[in-house]
Amino acid sequence: MRLAADTLERSKASGQFHSVKGTLVEWIGHLTGATSWQKSGRDEHTAGEAEIQAAEVAGYLQGTLDRAQGKVDAVVGAVTGDKARQIEGNLRHDKGKADQEANGPA
Questions:
Q1: Among the four residues 61, 95, 98, 99, which has the most C-beta atoms within 10 Å?
Q2: What DSSP string describes 11-53?
Q3: Residue 6 has what pLDDT?
Q4: What's the whole-model pTM score?
């Protein structure tokens, strides 16, 4: 199953939004002394960070699959003389590598 890049980006953006919102709510809770806001903000921040990490893992795994399948297609294309398949395989491999680098550990 191929995860669409826009789905992963929306998930990352949603996670970032909730992370920042949670931090702000927690900060307001500290300013006002409202412990329920502090806890609520901390929980939302944590959930946002988890959503970001899940999207990065999914992107990295998809990159790994693309990289492997691209290598297979490139080799099969080279062996059979199918230049189009070889080129498409190389492009998929390179895209997979870029996805891994974009979503890999910092």
A1: 99
A2: HHHHHHHHHHHHHHHHHHHHHHT-HHHHHHHHHHHHHHHHHHH
A3: 76
A4: 0.77
Upper half-sphere CA count for residue 15 (Cβ side, 13 Å):
17
C-alpha to C-alpha distance for 22 and 43, rounded to whole angstroms:
7
Residue type, 13: A
CA 38 centroid distance within chain: 28
As a whole number of angstroms, the distance between CA 53 and CA 91 comes to: 26
What does the pLDDT look like over 1-15, one tens digit per residue?
455 667 888 889 999
Token pair, residue 66, equals: 């693309």
Cβ partners under 8 Å of residue 87, min gap 6: 77
Between the alpha carbon of residue 2 and those of residues 10, 37, 64, the distances in Å are 15, 39, 12
- Residue 25 structure tokens: 């709510």
